[in-house]
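Lab notebook, bench 4. The sequencing result for the construct came back, and we need a structural model before the next group meeting so we can plan mutations. Quick request posted to the team channel:

Model the 3D structure of this chain.
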Amino acid sequence: MKNCAMNDTFDKLDRKILQQLQINCRQSTEHLGAIVGLSATACQRRIKKLRDSGVIHSEVAILDAATLQSRLTVLVEIKFNKGGTVVIEGFKALMRDCPAVQQCYYLAGDVDFSVIISVANIQEYELLTRSLFLNNPNIVKFSSRVSMDNVKTSLAIPLD
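Done. Here's the predicted structure in token form:
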């Protein structure tokens, strides 16, 4: 991914395209062009530029977990007893490799990481805590909160 500032490289039309793609990335370039005021070909060129520059990282389907099966969402805060590059980078890699981890944030403040985990049930979560947290000698404390309701889920980045 190339590192470039949004303000330096992209204009208002790029922002409009990105806003629309965050709503529905499967819309045709004809439809998208009609919304943002460009031809389909011009939209295609701009989308390619946005992909090539790394601004568009990936395009995914967001599934409705409630229609598929019952899932348990757990928010976990983790505190390490010691840091260091090796410890932190090792934990980041562990989180990236774990399919149950939906999101992981490395934080400044009184906790080191905040993790959102999706599991089938509390028994699966208990097994996961053993492998990810309890057996890690660098973790001094972790606290879990079980979600009762998903009020909002969005990965859209405000571009205004």
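The radius of gyration is 20 Å.
Will bring this to the meeting.
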